[in-house]
Structure formats: structure tokens, C-alpha cells
Amino acid sequence: MVFDIDIQSVFRNKIDSLLTTASWTEELKQLLGITGVSPVWDDVPAWYFWIDGAPGVYALVLEEAFEKTENASTLHGLFSLKCYPFSGREEFAGFSFVERELVTSKFFDATNTPQFEHRASIPSSLFVIGAVECVLDRENRWSLFTLESQDLMRARYEAEILEDYPLIDLSRFYCSGDVGRSIQAWDVSYLLFDRIVSLWAHFGKKSPSKVVLERSFGFEHVYTDSGEWSCQESPDREIRSLSVLFGESPGQGTSEAIFRNDPPTPGVTVLYPSESQCSCPTHDHQPSGVSPYMNCLWWTIPESNFTSELSSPCGCS
User: Fold this and answer.
1) Confidence of residue 41 (pLDDT cuts 50, 70, 90)
2) Which of 80, 92, 116, 212 has the fewest C-beta atoms lying within 10 Å of its C-beta?
3) For residue 220, what are the β-bridge partners?
């Protein structure tokens, strides 16, 4: 992990603030289907999310925080997105053997999240389904959220192997052709990303100014005859990167060049603003259902007047 402590604090405070603000309005939480949020008490900033209809409990973990000064100063927060699957859900079977065993073991508690005393022993690579980047302009002119994940995260075996899992004191034999992990990662990741963008729109009282989708060939993790794991490109898999911009477009020279009005780039689609717009009489965007990558709420929430349920300005009841 790479951290500038001061910048780490910026992102910790931003996420804490937008979640605290949302907690004041039950109507907003119900609208977004958020049934619970909780900070993870650790040196590394992280948060748990419980969402109606989700296949598990989400964890948003800040992995890196740093500053870039290419043209203008920008703060970058890189988050891993994890899902701790519910054993009763269909998606549970797609997680790896060790992930399934951990969730149903002493390592997890009744909330379907890692026990405090066992959290550090769980490898950080487990349960990951995507990544989120948040970029903030030092002058508060714009902010950018990007989700990156695959349509399907898949690990398979081309050779036999007996794998040992000392953490759970178990072993498992895999044959050639076995699939060790197969998760509809994009669909699962988007559920949380949608809520994060919605909460940011509510917190800043701004709607997105641009939405861009980038597609590229995906990959699979393959255990080969050489006895090693290999990352192999697969034309049947797709990496998707969805970027949502709030505020004015970043200027020339920034790493967010995708948002400049340059000639079209192969694999890149501008979803908003676009030629085919929503039929909504008051908002110039595509509604949820027309595009699987945008939600009408991103534009309507900033205009909504939710009633705070705090009985006093300080939050005391």
C-alpha cells in the first residue's frame, strides 16, 4: 500500500462525511436500498455496506492515497471493492473454495463480515471483485469516480493439483477443466458503485457532467501444465471502466484526458451527454433501465429536498 497520511485522511473524512450526511435521512437510505454502513476500525480506512438485494456484504478499502501535480494538483484514492457473499445466495457458488469456507467459519461473525481478531489473517487478495478510483481536484472544481471490473472473474485449471489451505486447515484436489472461481464481478461491483455515486451527488448537491465507459479485452487466471498460475487474455472476457465526472472537465495535461473533447478513442463510449437522451421531461440523461451503466437518481437526487431526521443541529436526540 502507498499512503500519504494527510491525503489518506482527506479520503477517510470525505467518505465518512457523505455516509454521515446520508444517515440523517431515512428517505434517502430507503431510496438507495442501503440498510447499513459501518466504518472498519483499523489503520487502513475501510467501510462495510449492507444493500437490499445484494449477494453479500460489501467492503470498500482504501489501498493507496497520493497526489499528482502534472498540470494541476489532484488527489487520488484507490480503493479495492470486496464482497463477502451470503451462503444462501446463488452467487455464493461462484466464489473460490477458500472464500466460501472462510465465510461460513469462525473467521466471520453474524454480520457476514470478518471477526475483528481474525481480519488481519485473511489474505487481502480474497473476495476482491473490482476497484474504485476517486480523483479530487485541489481547487474543488471537479471530482471523478471510476469503477473498473470484469464482466466475469474466472480462475480455472488446465492441470491437476492438490492445493493446501493452511489458514482453514483444509486441502482440495482440482482436476484439469475445473473452475475455481467464476463471479459476475461487474454486476456485483456496480451495485455498490451506483450507491457511492448517488451518495456523492447528494453530498455535493451536484449531478454528473459526463459519464464515459471504456471496454477492453479481459483475462482469466489459469493454472497451467507448467505448475504455475498464468494471467491469460481472453476475447470472451471484458474489462469495463466506468468513469463519472462531477463539475467541469479536467484541463489539458491531466491524467483524466479521457474527459477532454478529443477525437473518439476505440473502445471508449460517451454515455452522457449523448445523442440519444432520456425522454424524462426535466432531465437530460438516460434513465435507469435504458443503460446498464447509469442511474436516473444521479441526476434527481441533487435536486431532492430530503428531510433531516436530526432533532438538533449537533445530532443529539
Assistant:
1) confident
2) 116
3) 232
